């Protein structure tokens, strides 16, 4: 009887796991599905006192209206350039610094780790005035370069903390073995350590990209020209002076604004989910 119940118990446990996973996926996907449903509804359905989850008469009028009212394509291009530049610069700076923090446990490295933790406690409001004054002196107000600089500084502490953990997961014996074989420090870092850090680098790039793509407050304060504004700032233009939102076009624009983040994640997800040290150490 015990042997007979075991397969049934396993199937029940697996069914429960899949059910819980499906419920979690639906919970995560609910905002996106709600945006899509709202974007496809007509104004009459949006104003109905008994709204339906699935549009009765789907229409793309909200998408056309959103692009007609606001320069969404140009704003999306601005956001894309800023986010890509932020991801690249953050990775280039964070990778060598994280290696030093993880491999050389000096006072400076411990102080840098403490700075990483403390810096995350400061809210945006306390930072915007000194940042604005510094960028004004550097003549980087209303400049994508200044915005990228701010995003890199804001993303760097968490990126360092994330990459330092990946560096510590790489066995130091691999680098020692490469040194015994005659490889120099630079060759060891580029040929041995860096490939093993690929999942961490991909995760760091994804974090920096999504942070810059979705950020609103700094972009609102630092960018003045309409032609330089990023997509999150342009989305606020669908809200009228009295605080009434043009719900259909806003939902359509917001749904389209989420797609680049999902596409970028799809590009790097294999690196993120792959094993960090798969095949690196022979047993």
UniProtKB/TrEMBL annotation:
It comes from the Bacteria. PROSITE patterns: ABC_TM1. The chain crosses the membrane at residues 21-40, 80-102, 114-135, 147-164, 196-223, 250-268. Pfam families: BPD_transp_1 (PF00528). Residues 76-268 form the ABC transmembrane type-1 domain. It is a multi-pass membrane protein. It is found in: Cell membrane. The keyword Transport applies. Keywords: Cell membrane, Membrane, Transmembrane, Transmembrane helix, Transport. Belongs to the binding-protein-dependent transport system permease family. This is Carbohydrate ABC transporter permease. The lineage of its organism: Bacteria, Bacillati, Actinomycetota, Actinomycetes, Kitasatosporales.
């Amino acid at each position: 009887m015990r042997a007979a119940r075991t397969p049934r118990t396993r199937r029940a446990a697996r069914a429960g796991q899949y059910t819980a996973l499906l419920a979690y996926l639906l919970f995560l996907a609910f905002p996106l599905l709600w945006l899509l449903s709202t974007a496809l509804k007509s104004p009459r359905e949006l104003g109905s006192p008994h709204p339906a989850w699935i549009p009765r008469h789907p229409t793309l009028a909200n998408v056309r209206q959103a692009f007609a009212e606001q320069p969404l394509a140009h704003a999306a291009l601005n956001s894309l350039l800023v986010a890509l530049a932020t991801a690249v610069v953050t990775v280039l700076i964070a990778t060598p610094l994280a290696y030093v923090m993880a491999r050389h446990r000096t006072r400076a490295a411990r102080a840098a780790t403490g700075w990483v933790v403390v810096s995350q406690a400061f809210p945006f409001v306390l930072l915007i005035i000194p940042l604005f004054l510094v960028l004004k002196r550097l003549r980087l107000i209303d400049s994508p370069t200044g915005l990228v600089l701010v995003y890199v500084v804001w993303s760097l502490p968490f990126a360092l903390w994330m990459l330092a953990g990946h560096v510590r997961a790489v066995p130091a014996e691999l680098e020692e073995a490469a040194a015994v074989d005659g490889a120099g420090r630079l060759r060891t870092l580029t040929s041995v350590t860096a490939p093993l850090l690929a999942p961490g680098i991909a995760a760091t790039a994804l974090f920096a990209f999504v942070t810059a793509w979705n950020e609103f407050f700094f972009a609102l304060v630092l960018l003045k020209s309409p032609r330089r504004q990023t997509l999150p700032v342009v989305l606020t233009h669908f809200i009228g002076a009295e605080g009434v939102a043009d719900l259909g076009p806003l939902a359509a624009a917001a749904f389209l604004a989420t797609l680049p983040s999902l596409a970028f994640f799809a590009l790097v997800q294999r690196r993120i989910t792959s094993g960090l040290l798969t095949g690196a150490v022979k047993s």
